Hints:
Elements: H1 2-20, E1 29-31, H2 39-52, H3 60-75, H4 81-99, E2 146-147, E3 157-158, H5 175-184, H6 188-207, H7 221-237, E4 279-281, H8 305-311, H9 315-330
Parallel strand pairs: 1-4
Antiparallel strand pairs: 2-3
Helix pairs in contact: 2-4, 4-7, 5-9, 6-7, 6-9
The structure holds 2-acetamido-2-deoxy-beta-D-glucopyranose (NAG) (2 copies).
GO molecular function: metal ion binding; oxidoreductase activity
Pfam family, one: Tyrosinase
Keywords: Copper, Metal-binding, Signal
Amino acid sequence: MILIRLLVLTLLALWSVLAQAPTRCTSIRTRREIRQLSRQERMRFIHAIRQLNQGDIPTVWDNYALWHLNLNHTIHRSPFFLPFHRRYLVDLENRLQAIDPSVTLPYWDWSLDAKAPFDNVVFSSASDWLGSQGSCLNDGGFARFYVTCTESGPRSHCLSRRFRAVNGRTTLYGRDIIQRIVDTTNTYNAFRELLEYGPHNLVHDMVGGDMDTMCAPSDPLFFLHHTFVDKLWADWQRYPNRGRQFDGTPSGEQLTSASLIPYYKEPVSSSLSTRAYCYQYAPSPEPAELVPSSDRPNLPEAISKDFIEHWGYNATKVRNVENYLKGLADGNGKGKVGVLESNPTHPLSF
Ligand SMILES: *[C@@H]1O[C@H](CO)[C@@H](O)[C@H](O)[C@H]1NC(C)=O
Ligand SMILES: *[C@@H]1O[C@H](CO)[C@@H](O)[C@H](O)[C@H]1NC(C)=O
């Protein structure tokens, strides 16, 4: 009797382990917001990246930006935007773990900092943070970090950032709007386009320097930004009937989840679950000051004309997306927070 009970308990324990993780994952990594890491954890992350950027040029680190530059057209303005970047983050995370198994990619939840994006500890000059700005970044964990990718060919240069302000201020998409995009957009490609064209592009545009070029992954901040974009996709996927969605017709051709992720040549279906890649997300911290729900949320700045031209986006579409998101922010959008199946009729033709 005791033996049978033991056997049952063992089987149950085994089953719960197997149920949590596909057998090829030895564990599930949890990615957290950078402010949830200890100083020691941030130092290890920075150190592992610096290790990847050592040796002959182009370094292993440089190659990530060079691929991104070369893939430009297939991974932006395309449904592959989310699957490609998810796979690419896992690729880098595996490299970092080979150097230091305790490292997982942190994310920067910029929606918490929407009203003053660069005026917070993430951009602090202390050695365990990301540093501020400059034509040669000279503070933080990546002070005097040399990278090679430029859009006009490989050339070693110091990492740069140039924060953009409009009328003396910078405003990104805040948590209210981001949450509404996640809650109310029920089809994959509409969600992907709203996220990519609006909030995602605005961060690249506002950080400036290497970040607003196709060599953006030269800046470690790129990975914190895209890890948050990936988390938003994962949040979106948790709603019913969304988890396996993937579609779109970027150049007339109908894509499906059997289509191959550019560069990696693996089916999109393999990227639709974070757990299949052996990671999950910890929830973002709560904002220190929640905007009272009766308050009209801050509206984000418009994406600059220069950025749109430089990255080859369709300006009409970008403005349509921005206007739609303004409607969501004002509460005029058809979707209501918390109404899962409201399925607003999208005003745009995606
Ligand atoms: C990226 O692709 C877009 C669209 O084809 C193009 O307009 C842009 O110049 C490209 N950027 C680079 C750096 O190649
Ligand atoms: C840009 O987008 C608009 C709106 O979706 C569309 O009507 C127009 O044809 C697009 N322009 C180009 C050059 O693709």
